[in-house]
Amino acid sequence: MNIKYHCEAGGETGYHAHSKAFWSRLQKYNDGTGIPINIVLDTSNHPIFYKEYHGIKICYNVYESTLQPEKFFNHILNNWDYFWCPSEWQRQCTINQGFPADRVMVVPEGVSTEFYPVEDSDLADKFTFAIIGKWEYRKSTEEMINCWFEEFPIEKYPNVRLILSVDNPFDRDNVNNKLKEIENLRDPRVEIFHFPPREEYIKLLQKSHMYLSCSRSEGWNLPLIEAIACGVPSICLDYSAQAEFSRNISHAVKLKEMRSIPNNSFPGEYGEPDFDDFKAKMKYVYENWDECRARALKGANFIKQQYSWEKAAEIAHDYLLEIQEKHKNDKFDDQTFPISGRVNVNFIDGANFDIASNTGNEYHVKFINRDNNNVIYDTKLRPTSETGTCWARPLAKYFINWKVEVSAVTKSISESENKIVEQDSDTIVIKGGNNNTTKKEYFCHEYNATGKRVFINLDSKALGDNIAWMPYVDAFTKKWGCETYVTTFWNILFEKAYPNLKFVRPGAVVDGLYAQYKIGCFDNDTTRNKVNWREVPLQKVAADILGLPYVEMKTKVSVSQEFVRTGRKFVCISDHSTMQSKFWNYPGGWQAIIDYLGDLGYDVVAVSKDQTGLTKIVPINNRQIEEIAAIIKASEFFIGVGSGLSWLAWSLNKKVIMVSGFSDPFIEFQSNNYRISAPPGKCHGCFNDSKLVFDRSWNWCPRNKNFECSTSITPEMVKEKIDLLISHL
Fold first, then answer.
1. Residue 299's CB: how many other CB atoms inside 10 A?
2. Between residues 19 and 376, which one has the greater pLDDT?
3. 447 CA to centre of own chain
4. pLDDT one-digit tens code per residue, 524-574
5. pLDDT tens by residue, 424-452
C-alpha cells in the first residue's frame, strides 16, 4: 500500500498521541506500492497544502458537537474523498450534516500499553478522586468540582482526596481565577497538578480510586479510556463517542436533555448531564468500591483487546484495502508535485520538510538564511516506490528566518558544466557540455509568523532564567506580530506585565500552531544553543534561539500587592541559592553587613528561603513569590548572590549589590549592578568554564579550592559598594 500520513506530532494528547501511536502501527502495511492514499489528521492544520496532495484524500476528524462549522465542513465535503472518525455517534452526525454515508467510516482511537492497572496495595493511601483534562463548559469541569464538594464535605469525609490537573490555554484567565478560588478554600484534600510530565500523569491515574468525567459531549475522551485501561472505576455521561467504549464498564450518568451550545460558540448541541445522578454515582462507587474495582479490572481487559492501537490499525487497513480496490483504475498525474504533510516549523526539533512520491524524481531541497541569503542546508532527495517518503532537516534547531526551496531535476549533468542560460518564474533551463536539463521549482515556503499562532516554552524552573528570557519573548512577538502562547513556571509574575502574551500552564497543549520554540540551557547541544550557554550572557540564550539581536533588555514583572512597613527604611538581602558554590562563603560576612546597614540607619529584611544563624534581621520565610516581589519593590536596594531574587530585584528597578565569584560578570545583567567579584589572582568564574563538568551537588567546589572565589570577598569590599550605591540614590 502507498499510504501517506499527515499530522503535526508534538505532545502527548489528543491528535498528537493519535498521530504517533496510530501511524506507527499502520506503517507496517505500507510498502509504497499502489495508488497514493493520503490520511490527514485534523485538516484544519493543512489549509495550504490539501490541494497539493497526490492521490486519494482521507480526512480523519474528531469533533464534539452534533454539527461542525459550516465553512469547515464544506471544505471537507468538497475537497476530501473519504471521512474517517472514531465513533459511530460522530459518523451519524456527519451523515446527518450531508456527507455521503458510503464515504464515512469509523476507525476508533486506541489506548497505549503504558496504561495498565496496579495492585490495590499500590493505590494512594487516601481514597482519591481524579479530574484531568481541559477546563471548559463542554467538559463540565466546574460542575463536577462543585458536585464533589457538595457530596463529600470535609466535615464528614476528611480522609478523601481530589486530584485536579486541568487547564485551558484559550481561557487561561478564567481558569486561573477558578483554581485560585479553590486554593483559597484552604481544603487540604484538594491537590492541583499543573499538567505533570507524562510518566507522572500515568501514575496519577493508576493510583486513583475513581475517575470523574461528565463531559457534555466528546469526540473520543482519551483520558477516560486511559483511566479505564488502568482499571480505575470511572463515571461518565451516557452520550456521544465516550459512551461507545465505556458502556457497561463506567458508571453511566443519565442524559437529562439536549441543549444548544451557549453563546453560539459552536453550531449543534451538547448533552446536558443529570448532575444529581452524577453525585449519586460518585457516592455509590465510593461506598461499593471493591465491587466497582472488580468491574473496572474486567473493563480494562476488554479495552486492551478491543481498543488497542493495533486494533485501530487493522480496522483502518481493511478500509484501505476497499478504497484501493475501488480506485485501482484511477489515474493520477505523476508529474504533480506531491507535497506530503507540510513544512514543519516545530523548532523544538528544528524545521522539517517532507516529500512523498513514487515517481523516482530527484528533488533538490535548500534551506536559505533570509538574513544574509546563505544556504544553510542543501540536499537532494529521491523518494521511490520502495521508500515512499524522504525528508530534509537542517541541523541548526535555533535557525529562524529561513526559506525552503524545492525543485526537481529531470536529468542530471555535471555541476562544473552547469550554466543558467534562461530563466522564468517557474522553470530554469540549464545547459552545459552535451547535456541539457530542466530544473522546475515546485515549492517555496518562507518563514513568516505574522498573524500566526506561536508557542514558546521557557524550559527552566529557575526564577532567574525566566526573568532573563521573558523580554525576548515579548520582542519576538512584536517583531512578527504573531499570537504568542508562552508557558513558564512563574506565570503569576508576568501575566499582567505582558498583556499581549497568552500565558498557559506548563504541560498545556496549544493546537493550531505555526511554530513552537523551547528556550533553555542545553548542555553540549549547539543545535539548540548556538554556542555553549555557559560562555554567553544569560539573556543571549533566548536571543539566539528566537533569532533576535542581543542587547540587554529589562524585564517587566507585575506586583499585585503592596508591602507597607512603618519605621526605618529597609534593605532586602538574600543569602541563599541552589548550590553552596553560589553562596557568599566568607565566614560571618552576612552578619557583618547586616550590622553595618543597621549602623547606617537601615533595617534588614531577609527574603531568602532560609536564614541560618543571622540576627538583627526581619525574616520573611516561605512567602509566595508575588509577596516577595512586593517586599523587594518597597525596599531601598537589594543585596544578594547570583540568583533569581537578584534578577527579580533588577526587574523591579532596584539597584543590586551582587556578591559573586562563582560566575563572571558578563553572565548576569549589567545595569544597576554593583557587583563584587573575587580579587585578582583568586580562583573565579568556574561557572563559565565550559571545560568543567558540573555534578551540581550541594557542597561541590568545581576546582576543589574550598570556594576561594567567594571566601576571598571580604565584608570591607561589600561595604565599599554599599557606600557607593547610597551615594547614587
1. 21
2. 376
3. 21
4. 777 778 888 888 999 999 999 998 999 999 999 988 888 877 788 999 999
5. 333 333 333 344 445 555 667 788 889 98
Extract the runs of DSSP E, i.e. beta strands, from 308-351. Answer: none
Cα distance between residue 632 and residue 635, in whole Å: 5
Q: How far is Cα 58 from Cα 61, in angstroms, rounded to an integer?
A: 9
CA distances from 522 to 359, 464, 551 (A): 41, 16, 21
State the DSSP code for 713: S
SS3 454: strand
CATH of domain 120-297: 3.40.50.2000
The pairing of strands 618-619 and 638-640 is unpaired
Res 296: pLDDT: 96
Residue 53 burial (CB < 10 Å; 0-12/13-18/19+)?
Answer: buried
More confident residue, 504 or 361: 504
Task: Quote the crossing angle between the two packed helices 589-599 and 715-728, to the nearest 10°.
Answer: 40
- Cα distance between residue 648 and residue 644, in whole Å: 6
| Superfamily of domain 570-728, CATH level 4 | Glycogen Phosphorylase B; (3.40.50.2000)
pLDDT of residue 27: 84
The secondary structure of the chain in percent helix, strand, coil, rounded to multiples of 5, reads: 35, 20, 45
For residues 22 and 309, the answer to whether their CB atoms sit within 8 Å is yes
Distance CA 709, CA 702 (A): 11
For the chain, the domains span 1-110+308-333, 120-297, 453-545, 570-728
Measured distance CA(466)–CA(318) in Å, rounded: 50
Per DSSP, 52 falls in state G
Crossing angle for the helix pair 625-634 and 644-651, nearest 10 degrees?
60
What single string gives the DSSP state of each residue in 474-531?
A: HHHHHHHT-EEEEE-TTHHHHTTT-TTSEEE-TT----S-SEEEEE---TT-TTTSSS
Cα atoms found within 13 Å of the Cα of residue 534, Cβ hemisphere only: 16
Q: Count other Cβ atoms within 10 Å, centred on residue 166.
A: 24
CATH number of the 1-110+308-333 domain: 3.40.50
Residue 502's region, left for phi above 0, alpha for psi from -120 to 50, else beta, is beta
* Residues ≥6 apart with Cβ < 8 Å to 286: 127, 152, 160, 210
Q: 120-134, 477-491, 525-539, 663-677 — which is least confidently predicted?
A: 525-539
Is residue 232 scored above 60 in pLDDT?
Answer: yes
Of all residues in the chain, the percent with pLDDT exceeding 70 is: 83
Phi/psi for 155 (5° steps) reads -65, -35
**Hey, is 644 helix, strand or coil?**
helix
- pLDDT band with cut points at 50, 70 and 90 for residue 340: very low
Nearest to residue 319, comparing CAs of 25, 77, 58?
58
Fold matches, 1-110+308-333 and 120-297: yes
